[in-house]
Design goal:
2 copies of one chain form a homodimer. With 251 residues, chain A is of the alpha+beta class. Chain A is built from 8 helices and 10 strands. Chain A has 2 domains: 121 residues, no CATH class; 120 residues, PSTPO5379-like fold, CATH 3.30.2040.10. In chain A, strands 1-6-2-3 form a 4-stranded antiparallel β-sheet.
């Protein structure tokens, strides 16, 4: 939904700004949720290119209009104006919790704001998040298993290389996984297909896909929570994999 | 270069229309060269999605404005109008040689036109072709080795899966390969990076990349001509791999 006036997305950001929440899942279900990445400006054009060359794991929604701009964003969504992306936004305070990296190393986590870290040289990027299509799956009677169980989605490192872009030469896809009945996979593909700015339809599915993607152990995801009750001998319930916004964070 | 009035691209198409040429390489060096794919309209929206989800191997330049249109194209290049794509084009005659498939099987090759095969239900797609950036490499003193030798570029099947899109679920990347001195790779990357609508910069390079891409034998490309004098023990000259427009033909 395009933002205008007061809305659930803005209210959620204000709760985050005032440090009233630490998670956003489900708070503004009709709006796109985004992952936030902030980089020094010297990496900005290469990162833009990385997103354009790898749109499924890295669907770029918006970026700082100019370096140093934490409040004015440029839309990268066709047909969506800059103003419609997010109203009264402040990148430095409107995310519940931030992690701060210095030269690739995590130096601070669980920060409630980054007003001190933000400089005129920083560029913010918003990447689509799969939380957005989960509401559609739930509405269609196909809720992702981890949401029903109150757990985080399992995410896996794969061996699928990203298409290189400038300084970003070494990354591989990260995928999120939701198990579904084999008979429901086509329906799940159809339901998520239109969500092109938030990873869209699955990249692969079925037990074959585990090997194809180079996933080492389906029961040991690199990120998120372990899946429960998933059995490679079970041909009825199969893993379904989507591109995941953790990909650009690792690249 | 944008087409307007009489130009080398149009002249080349007229030569093809009149069956005077069978190859196009080098005939209109300042213009984008394209690969042509024609599909029944029921596959058109899935094929568009395949291109959007896999822009490096499948950079979509233009498509039929409506099913059955062999002369009017819609541009998919930002900032390029429909009219600027190709003047006085006839998809059915302006390619030197066509191959005709029926249900995935090649039923006719080396056709000089497809006026009899084209129907109101067909949709044409133009995909960027790496011939376009080779002129830039040559102009910079880094001519691809196969062009200097008068051979076709070697192309390899890889095990990198395409992001699935509708009916297109099983394909993998095809890559083209040009050997370069290791010391020149960064320059080669920079030179081809701007050609975003014709595969852009390489997806991978170096002898490591052969395994990473799942290429079985560097001396036995699946398409094009065998590379000459390429030695895996030679650390000075390394293979450099680009996304290749053969990818969507196989998908």
């Amino acid at each position: 939904m395009i933002e205008s006036g007061n809305n659930a997305a803005l209210s959620t950001r204000l709760l985050a700004r005032n440090n009233k929440i630490t998670l956003t899942s489900g708070l503004a279900p009709k709006y796109l949720q985004a992952n936030l990445i902030i980089l020094p400006s010297r990496f900005a054009s290469d990162f833009l290119l990385l997103c354009h060359r790898n749109p499924v794991p890295c669907p770029l929604l918006a970026s700082s209009r100019t370096p140093g701009s934490a409040t004015a964003l440029k839309s990268h969504l066709p047909g969506i104006s800059d103003a419609a992306i997010a109203s009264a936004l402040d990148i430095c305070t409107d995310v519940p919790l931030y992690m701060v990296y210095d030269d690739g190393k995590l130096v601070k986590s669980h920060c409630s704001d980054i007003a001190k870290e933000w400089t005129d040289d920083h560029v913010a990027f918003l990447i689509g998040c799969s939380y957005s299509f989960e509401a559609a799956l739930t509405a269609a009677g196909l809720p992702p298993r981890h949401t029903a169980m109150g757990r985080n989605v399992p995410m896996y490192a794969t061996n699928i290389p990203l298409c290189a872009a400038g300084v970003f030469t070494g990354g591989t896809y990260v995928v999120s996984m939701r198990p579904y009945r084999r008979a429901d996979v086509e329906k799940v593909r159809e339901l998520t297909r239109p969500y092109v700015s938030t990873h869209g339809e699955p990249v692969a599915w079925g037990w074959d896909a585990v090997e194809k993607l180079g996933i080492k152990d389906i029961n040991a995801p690199e990120f998120g929570d372990m899946p429960l009750d998933l059995d490679p001998a079970d041909d009825e319930i199969v893993p379904v994999f989507w591109g995941c916004g953790v990909t650009p964070q690792l690249a």
